[in-house]
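To fix ideas, we quote verbatim a fold written out as tokens:
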Amino acid sequence: MNKKERIKKLALIMLILISLQVISQESKPIYLNTSEYVLASKILGEDRKYIVSLPPSYENSQTDYPMAILLDGDYHVYSASTTVEVMSKEGQIPELVIVAVETKENRTRDMTPTKSLIGYDGKDNSKWLKDSGGGTRFLDFLEKELLPEVRESYRIKNYTVFVGHSLGGLLGAEAYLENREFNSYIAIDPSFWWDDNYISKKIDTTLIKKIDKSKRFYFSGANSYGTTNGMIANMRNGHELFYATLRNNGVPYTNVEFQLFEEEDHNSAPLISLYYGLKYIFKDYVLEDAASKNIEELTGHYNALSKSLGASFLPPENVVNMVAWSNFNRGEREKAYEFFNLNIHNYPTSPTAHAMLGYAYNNAGNKAEAIKCFEKALSVDPNPNFALEQTLNDLKDE
């Protein structure tokens, strides 16, 4: 098959995949490992929809997961879930349960902390701002109704990331200054211009002492400083004022980060901002040069991370496997077995944890121990694993 034929074949495969995706989109509106719910809110006096997106390991695990509350969730859930899955598989961040809250119908009401009729252009916008000022009530709904319901239904650890875009980012800043229940914040191109820079003035007046300075706050900006459009100028001025006011009032620079994406606009900023925001929030998650660490250094790193973030974070299974195989391939097999067993201790229902130790024993010629590990891996796996079954049968036949 020549190059031109290979390209044509690849194009045909892509066309088929896209067609299948369209069919699935038409028949089922929720993708990935997601479920949609409706919560009858007494605080808001109405039903609110939300989507829960679970990480790939959830069904085969007994561990608890940190959670991300994602505003405008019906719009952002698919890109956010994919971003989190890729980053967690690469070991950059922990796996997250994403709770995506639909906000489109009452967006302006729910995401504005004060009543105001003045838009970003400085003009009266009574028509679309007449219901503004419901932010406090919406935060109460998130804290007192949504979070408890999700925690009752899923295995959630005591660590929650608040993610909001535009007015949602403004509401995140309000929650941060009010020291709400959330542990960290990602505010994407937030509307800090709101109500004559209300959010920055709030820092200067009544609530600076309420800020938990150990919490991490990341926010981004879009478009270039060179653009003179009134909206962009107001957005930039609000961002700079908020950042400077936080820093001037003693918030450590290590726990607040502002990042400008000059080549992005307000609508393209969410994807790249979520990526860099999560990297910042979990900046201590990655253990540099992990393959050279001993087991005490590795566990010590994640114990320190847990203390810093205020929630328990186990060493990631994929990272430990990598370190284990690095030791094994260097001929340090006893050290390798320690790391494999660490995964089994931390993730006892993970088929991969048991299978990896089995492969190590098999490669070392210890077939009896390999058989035990493979049998355990198959027993804890709810899904059929024909390849591992065949490997086990071959070992037994020998």
